[in-house]
Amino acid sequence: MLPDITPTELAAALQHPDHGLTLLDVREPAELEICVLPNVVAIPKDQVPDRLAELRPDAHYVVICRSGKRSGDVAQLLSQHGYPRVQNLAGGMLRWSDDVDPTVTKY
After folding, report:
1. Taking a C-beta distance cutoff of 8 angstroms, is the pair 65, 27 a contact?
2. Per-residue confidence (pLDDT) for residue 19, from 0 to 100
3. Residues designated catalytic
4. What one-character-per-residue DSSP string does 54-86 give?
5. pTM of the entire predicted model
6. What residues contact residue 80 under an 8 Å CB cut-off, 6+ apart?
């Protein structure tokens, strides 16, 4: 597993069309209705273990949740299952709102 990525670092990476990142949002569907980054793969945290076959082991994942706790757990799980390029979004969507886009609703 790679070190966490900050919202500022992620925002900079997403500016490049060839960034090669897959954003994995592990929040619940109701949370995604409040705020979500574009082009995420949405799999709630509790479903990830049963849906690993949907995720490519060679992809570079940035795992996202509200505060960084659930996404950190999922990043660790993916790493343990042989996904070597996984990062947690430090501080989650709360920090994204603080550091990158204050129009993103906090909840």
Report:
1. yes
2. 94
3. 65
4. GS-TTSEEEEE-SSSHHHHHHHHHHHHTT--SE
5. 0.97
6. none
